[in-house]
Amino acid sequence: MHHQIDPAAQSLRLSFPGDVLSTNSDNLQREFLALLETTPVKTAGWTTLVIDLSAAKMVDSVGLNLIVGLYKEAKKRGAKTRAVVTSPNIQRTFAFTRLDTHIQIEPIA
Amino acid sequence: MTPPFPAPSPPVVLIVDDEAITHRLLEQHLKQTGHRALVANSAAAARLLVARLGSAAIDCVITDYNMPGESGLELLLWLKQHDPTLAVIMLTAATERQLVAATLRGGASDFLDKPIAAAKLTPALSAAIAATARSRRLAENERAVRNVGKTQHEMSGLDPEALATLEVCYHPCHAAGGDFINFFPLAPDQFLVLTADVSGHDLTAAFISAYFQGMARGMVESDRPITRVLERFNRFLLSDRSHRAAATATRTLPSVCACAVLVDRSLGTATLSNHGIPQLWLVGSSGQLAPARAPVESPLGWFDDPIGEPTRFTVPDGGQLWIWTDGLEDLAETLEVHPCSLATALLRTRLRGEVLAELSRARDDVLAVRIHLAATAGTGWLPLLHDTYHGGQVTEINRLQIRWERCLRLALPELSESRCYDLLLTLRETVLNALKHGCHAEPGQLATLTVTAQPDRHQVRCTVSDSGPGHAFDGIGHLEDEELPDLHRGLALIHRLATRVTIARRGAELTLDFTF
Q: Which letter, b or e, does each residue of B301-335 get, where b requires 16 or more Cβ atoms within 10 Å of its Cβ?
């Protein structure tokens, strides 16, 4: 998982390398929690978490749980969450699981 | 005294050159070496001569490359189109060496430099004439094999009564093959279907296949039970006569996989005797898919064991029985799909009057048969997949999902990308639930997935069952919760993506219907 801090936008961007599934969600979650403990992320003062799923073609229920976990972690820190979703299938999943009412989906550029 | 046999006629060589001196030299050489020469002074004259005499009357053509009008290469290309078996030697000048590659690509047997050296001409001629004879023998053999295949196809053609009961997809690897299916109407409500696969897929296999079919037809029409037919043919294959024939032909002993299905619609039963044919599958009128529970005995020709009593079972209402030979199983393995989805894809393409492109990868004859067991036609469910997984395979879910996708795409190419996603995600969630919770991720616990489809009704049915006791759950209420709890999100996806979910055994068995 790649991350990027944008001081101007006060955002922390997490880019997932592909699908977010039961088979890799545990590792991704561990990576995220470790990332939160690093000094640059702790001191950046980010107010928006951007979850970049543009490389993902499938997100299963465990992957959704991870995304909900990320959202809750951001909310705990007073940050809002946005997601970049290019797959129409994942967009549908976000809609009917009501994730899109909590996480703003960024329009595809 | 007249010799007992006429002397063989000398090989005929057509010389094509615009130079009279070349004609004379070549004619003289050919006469001295026991050939008969025909002469043409241009490519156009040569074509007229070949058209008049017929190319079969000529054994070799020697043509100059550089002639006024059409070149030797143009004549070569015309000859190869007209009769690819006729060998052609191209004459080129030393300055035309770059033409050699082009003439060889065009199909020339050889090339010679001008002026022609007699020492090179004689062996080149002999080789070219021998090549023509060899090509013609091969072409004749191929014609004979095609005729055998045609005769075989015509003789094994099914009558209208059979066609109302059976659907057959047969794709032999060669012009003639060893797989066959025979239909025997025995009484108004009773018929016998005999399917067989003779080892090998050559003319010998075609011959053994014809022998078996003739014997079976004779015995069945004399009211002999099918078990006696199988016994008799097994004895024949194990007989000294068969062994001697195999030894003479330096081939392995023949063996035959055969499956006889006797259907009695008045009793609602089918009786199965299977000798080496792969697993048979039953499809019910509600889309249930299950292996036909009948023991598979050794192929005929292996052992002198008595033929066991056939297995009788009750025919499911509107049910179908699917049979295929090992060529289909091999191809399914190559394509990494379940044989059921390949059989369905074969049947669907055949019904459209097309041939499945994937058949080009088959290494053996492929025969698949669907038998309608009941008099009333079923609802047309087609089998796609029947897999059993153990709890330890929970970590292999990505690989399993790739296999499901291959099966769906092969059998249901019309399935949209988004509906295929829904199906795959739902299957992933359901199978993961079964393996994690029903089987507790233990290798000793099993879960089964079956998938069937009714393409004409745009419907797919999947059933996932596990050996666990099931559990109580509260459905999909949490989807409406504002705080996004983490539990049962998988179940919510299943309910949302499937058109209908039917829960049995407290959730240890889920039937998922999808319309598309």
A: bbeeeebeebeebebbebbbbbbbbbbbbbbbeeb
Distance CA A56, CA B472 (A): 33
| CB-CB under 8 Å, A22 with B397 | yes
Per-residue pLDDT reduced to its tens digit, A8-59: 999 999 999 999 999 999 999 999 999 999 999 888 889 999 999 999 999 9
Rg (CA), chain B: 33
CA-to-CA separations, B194 to B209, B274, B365, in angstroms, rounded: 12, 10, 17
Instruction: Say if the Cβ atoms of B484 and A71 lie within 8 Å.
Output: yes
Closest to A60 in 3D by CA, of B427, B509, B474, B400 = B427
Strand, helix or coil at B293?
coil
The residues pairing with B273 across neighbouring beta strands, listed in sequence order, are B260
Quick check: B395 contacting A, CB < 8 Å? yes
The length of chain B is 516
Cα separation, B198 vs B486, whole angstroms: 58
How much of chain A is helix, strand and coil, in % rounded to 5?
40, 25, 35
Residue B148 or B194, more confident = B194
Contact status, residue B473 vs residue B496, Cβ threshold 8 Å = no
The mean pLDDT of B1-19, rounded to a whole number, is: 80
Q: Are B293 and B313 in contact (CB under 8 A)?
A: yes
Percent of chain A exceeding pLDDT 70 equals: 97
Q: CB A62 to CB B493 under 8 A?
A: no
Tell me which chain B residue has its CA closest to the CA of residue A94: B493
Per residue in B441-491, pLDDT (tens digit) is: 999 999 999 999 999 999 999 999 998 888 765 554 454 455 556 667 888
Smallest CA-to-CA distance from B420 within A20, A104, A88 is with A88
Question: Which tokens belong to B220?
Answer: 């069945």
Number of neighbours of residue B510 by Cβ within 10 angstroms = 24
8-state DSSP, B300? B
User: Cα A13 from chain centroid?
Assistant: 8
Say which residue the tokens 């994690």 belong to.
B436
pLDDT in tens, B138-193: 888 778 777 776 776 666 666 767 777 888 998 887 766 678 899 999 998 899 99
Q: Compute the residue count for chain A.
A: 109
Radius of gyration in angstroms for the set of CA atoms belonging to chain A, rounded to a whole number? 13
CB A98 within 8 A of CB B477: no
Asked whether the beta carbons of B438 and B468 are under 8 A apart, the reply is yes
B477 inside 8 A of chain A by CB = no
Q: What is the pLDDT at residue B7?
A: 66
What gap in Å lies between CA B41 and CA B63, rounded to an integer?
Answer: 10
The residue with tokens 């073609």 is A57
